[in-house]
């Protein structure tokens, strides 16, 4: 039997379906993650006609982020959320808020991290004085999509998808079905409606609360997925 075959484990869920795990690959992936682990997710909107000076048509404009911090193995996650309320420059405001809550050490974890790094680079283009800090953050980013895109961990319930909304229920047994806002397109539209459609203030505030729950679920889902990866890699 090859070393690769010995490193692969098959476990079963309660329905008898198989979870396939390449233990050595998962352990190698987890080994690059250094505490504190800070799980980051952005939500964005885009419009055909630029609404923000200096942006281009259909550019992804960040209006929200969620950050869950796990200071050490087994620690309770600490959450911070931010939503842009339309004052000033969203890129500058986003970097200011992140700068106040991101640790200067440890890994910054995102799911499909190219999206988060793209928004950070966009922000650095708008705020060049903060480019060095942005580069330091990007240099510490870990993409949680990697072990699922490479099929180092996979379950039939994912139906071939490596998206977080397919991985979470298959691996952890949780989903987004109870949320008022349950996917990115809904978040985008809900934000634009709340901000620019003249809705009553209480409706706007409720939308912001729903957005915070949704974006917070994305980063908490990453916490749960990493915890589960640690379990199956043993």
Give an account of the 3D structure.
44% of the residues lie in helices and 18% in strands. By secondary structure, the chain is of the alpha/beta class. It has a single domain, classed as Nucleotidyltransferase, domain 5 (2-Layer Sandwich), CATH 3.30.420. The strands form two sheets. The protein has a five-stranded mixed beta sheet with strand order 5-4-3-6-7, sandwiched between helices. A hairpin with a 5-residue loop joins strand 1 (8-12) and strand 2 (18-22). Helix 4 (113-126) packs antiparallel against helix 5 and helix 8 packs antiparallel against helix 9 (201-232). The longest helix has 32 residues, at 201-232. The radius of gyration is 19 Å and the shape is globular.
Query: What is the assigned CATH homologous superfamily?
Result: Ribonuclease H-like superfamily/Ribonuclease H
Structural class: alpha/beta
Main sheet summary: 5 strands, mixed
- As laid out across the biggest beta sheet, the strand order is 5-4-3-6-7
Supply the number of structural domains. Answer: 1
Give the N-to-C terminal Cα separation.
20 Å
What do we call the CATH topology?
Nucleotidyltransferase, domain 5
Average of per-residue pLDDT values: 92
Give the amount of beta strand, in percent: 15-25%
Helix percentage range = 40-55%
């Amino acid at each position: 039997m090859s070393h690769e075959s010995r490193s692969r484990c098959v476990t079963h869920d309660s329905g008898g379906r198989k979870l396939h795990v390449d233990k050595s690959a998962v352990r190698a992936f987890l080994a690059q993650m250094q505490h504190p682990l800070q799980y980051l997710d952005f939500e964005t909107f885009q419009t055909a006609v630029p609404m923000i000076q200096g942006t281009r048509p259909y550019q992804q404009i960040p209006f929200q982020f969620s950050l869950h911090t796990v200071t050490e193995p087994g620690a309770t996650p600490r959450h911070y959320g931010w939503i842009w309320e339309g004052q000033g420059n969203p890129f500058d405001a986003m970097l200011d808020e992140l700068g106040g809550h991101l640790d200067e050490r440890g890994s910054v974890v995102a799911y499909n991290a190219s999206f988060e790094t793209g928004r950070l680079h966009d922000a650095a283009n708008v705020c060049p004085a903060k480019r060095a800090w942005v580069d330091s953050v990007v240099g510490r980013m870990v993409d949680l999509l990697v072990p699922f895109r490479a099929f180092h961990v996979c379950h039939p319930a994912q139906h071939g998808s490596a998206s977080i909304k397919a991985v979470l229920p298959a691996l952890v047994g949780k989903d987004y079905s109870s949320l008022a806002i349950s996917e990115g397109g809904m978040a985008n539209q809900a934000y634009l409606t709340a901000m620019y459609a003249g809705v009553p203030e209480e409706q706007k505030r409720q939308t912001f609360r729903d957005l915070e729950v949704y974006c917070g679920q994305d980063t908490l889902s990453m916490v749960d997925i990493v915890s589960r990866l640690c379990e199956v890699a043993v």
